[in-house]
Design brief:
Elements: E1 6-11, H1 15-26, E2 34-37, H2 41-50, E3 55-56, H3 59-65, E4 66-71, H4 78-84, H5 86-92, E5 95-98, H6 105-112, E6 117-122, E7 132-138, H7 144-155, E8 158-162, H8 169-177, H9 179-196, H10 201-221, H11 226-233, H12 239-249, H13 252-270
Parallel strand pairs: 1-2, 1-4, 2-3, 4-5, 5-6, 7-8
Antiparallel strand pairs: 6-7
Helix pairs in contact: 3-5, 4-6, 8-13, 9-10
Length: 272
């Protein structure tokens, strides 16, 4: 196998690119073997100041001289960017991991070359605090070793969950990729409702965040399904039952289904 200067090269140094490189460095990877390329020279300098030893190079140099190349750019950018990397990818033969929503491995192969070893991943923003969850799909061109490499990289910022059918990556995007925004909206709504009942803003936010964090941890660590946990909180004729009836009457479940279906559809559109 070709000897490369960089273990991992990141094209795109936005929040997700930084979260991944930060996770790698914090888990013991040598910053001098990690490199970034970004259209903003100021952003590159800022990251190099915060992560001593971090390298910088052009996208073409990273494509040719990295063991693993991470495409951490917006999906709208790839149709123009990826074809410019084709020759460098052919020479360097890196494992290519794309975190661009909606872009299929078939599209990536058409831009980068049919033999390119490809993994498609959908991380989410809690990766910024090491609590991300990533769905990933390995193209047939990727080897078992490639899948392990991609999994280890993504596990540096949380959990990585494989998906056998690439079509399901749209559902992954709608569930975990966009999911943090649904939770943030719930936080906003609960805080505002608590304030309307008279609680000070800081108290309302602290109670809301603590409740959601605790309930999520309980659901994750319990052997009981969420429906049973909900049932245990809901005493007949009590306050929780009254509140849940309002949510059910407002078709909360239907709203969530429609919202996630819209996200999945947009994911498909981005890939066209």
């Amino acid at each position: 196998m070709t000897e490369h200067r960089f273990e991992v090269g990141f094209i795109g140094a936005g929040n997700m690119g930084e979260a991944l490189l930060q996770g790698l460095i914090q888990s013991g990877h040598d910053a001098e073997r990690i490199a970034i390329a970004d259209k903003s020279a100021e952003r590159v300098r800022d990251l190099q100041a915060r992560y001593p030893g971090l390298q910088a190079a052009s996208p073409e140099a990273l494509a040719e001289d990295s063991d693993t190349l991470v495409l951490a750019v917006k999906p709208q950018t790839l149709p123009d960017l990826a074809p410019t990397l084709r020759e460098a990818v052919t020479r360097g033969q890196p494992l290519v991991i794309s975190v661009a929503a909606g872009i299929t491995t078939a599209q990536l192969a058409s831009w980068l070359g049919d033999g390119t070893r490809l993994v498609r991943a959908m991380p989410n923003t809690p990766a910024l605090v090491g609590a991300g969850v990533t769905g990933l799909f390995a193209a047939p061109t990727a080897t078992p070793e490639d899948r392990d490499t991609a999994t280890r990289l993504l596990e540096s910022v949380g959990r990585a969950i494989p998906v056998a059918d690439e079509e399901l990556m749209h559902a992954v995007t709608a569930t975990s990729g966009s999911g943090p925004a649904y939770v943030f909206l719930m936080i906003e709504a609960m805080q505002e409702a608590a304030q309307s009942l008279g609680l000070p803003p800081d108290t309302a936010l602290e109670l809301t965040l603590g409740t959601l964090a605790g309930a999520t941890r309980l659901a994750a660590e319990s052997d009981e399904p969420p429906a049973e946990l909900r049932h245990r909180v809901t005493s007949p004729g009590g306050t929780t039952e009254r509140a849940l009836q309002v949510l059910e009457d407002g078709d909360l479940r239907g709203l969530m289904r429609r919202a996630m279906a819209a996200a999945a559809e947009r994911s498909r559109e981005l890939g066209q």
